[in-house]
């Protein structure tokens, strides 16, 4: 609980630092928030928990990369988050066989799929050389959200862990939309004001979904 509270406080400070352009505070707050959910992930157990921890670590690496403002650190962050999402996909595969994801998610699978297609369509003219990496990234997160929905509907985790997983995956997707808007549409505080809390809340919930699981 201390790590969760620390992450929440650090996220609030990070949002304020982004608003006020406090460069050093921004770096320290992001390290604090990301470090908190990684440390929280050390309490996970089992195959599911181990892969979740790997995903959390990769997410933290992506966070640090996104401290940069140019294309190169953004691309590095994109790759780190891509492998982070794939780690979560593997984690969920230990709960629900991939062949059962679409059937398990049911009609709710349409929601992330439609969100992914819409995002690509809106950003397409602005992607340029990053078209391939962005599409690969969106495919990974759409798969992750569908898998999380399937795990939730099939009760592959006990309550409330399955609720944490589904909500965490959804919030992660929402935060990714804010990052995409900020990178390809325009750097705006409004994107960070809702994107950063959604991201760190998503990571915390995914971590909590694995705590105590064996």
- Work out the count of structural domains: 1
Contiguous low-pLDDT stretches (5 residues minimum) are none
CA distance, first residue to last residue: 20 Å
User: Shape from CA axes?
Assistant: globular
What is the element string, with H for helices and E for strands?
Answer: HHHHHHHHH
> What portion of residues is helical?
over 70%
What is the residue-averaged pLDDT? 91
Rg computed from alpha carbons, rounded to a whole number of angstroms: 16 Å
Query: SS-based structural class?
Result: mainly alpha
Give the biggest sheet. Answer: none
Q: Give the count of helical stretches.
A: 9
Strand content: under 5%
**Beta strands, count:** 0
Give the quaternary arrangement of the chains: single chain
List the SSEs and their pairings.
Layout lengths: L1 H19 L2 H19 L4 H20 L5 H23 L7 H5 L4 H18 L3 H23 L7 H25 L3 H22 L4
Helix pairs in contact: 1-2, 1-9, 2-3, 2-9, 3-4, 3-9, 4-7, 6-7, 6-8, 7-8, 8-9
Structural summary, described in words:
The structure is a single chain. The chain has one domain. The chain is built from nine helices and no strands. The longest helix has 25 residues. The relative contact order is 0.14. The chain starts with a helix and ends with a helix. Helix 1 runs antiparallel to helix 9 and helix 6 packs parallel to helix 8. The chain is an all-alpha fold and 214 residues long.
Short recap of the structure:
This protein is mainly α and about 210 residues long. Helix content is about 80%, strand content about 0%.
């Amino acid at each position: 609980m201390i790590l969760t509270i620390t992450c929440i406080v650090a996220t609030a400070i990070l949002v304020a630092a982004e608003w006020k352009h406090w460069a050093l505070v921004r770096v320290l707050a992001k390290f604090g928030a990301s470090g908190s959910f990684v440390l929280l992930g050390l309490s996970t157990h089992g195959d599911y928990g181990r892969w979740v921890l790997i995903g959390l670590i990769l997410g933290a690496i992506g966070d640090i990369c996104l401290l940069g403002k140019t294309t190169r650190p953004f691309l590095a962050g994109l790759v780190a988050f891509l492998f982070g999402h794939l780690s979560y996909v593997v984690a969920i595969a230990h709960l629900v066989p991939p062949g059962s994801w679409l059937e398990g998610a049911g009609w709710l699978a349409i929601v992330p799929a439609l969100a992914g297609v819409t995002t690509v369509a809106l950003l397409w003219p602005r992607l340029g050389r990053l078209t391939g990496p962005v599409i690969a990234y969106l495919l990974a997160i759409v798969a992750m959200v569908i898998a999380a929905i399937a795990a939730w509907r099939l009760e592959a985790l006990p309550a409330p862990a399955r609720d944490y997983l589904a909500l965490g995956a959804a919030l992660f997707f929402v935060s990714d939309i804010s990052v995409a808007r900020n990178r390809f549409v325009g750097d705006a505080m409004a994107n960070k004001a809702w994107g950063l809390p959604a991201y760190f809340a998503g990571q915390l919930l995914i971590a909590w979904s694995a705590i105590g699981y064996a």
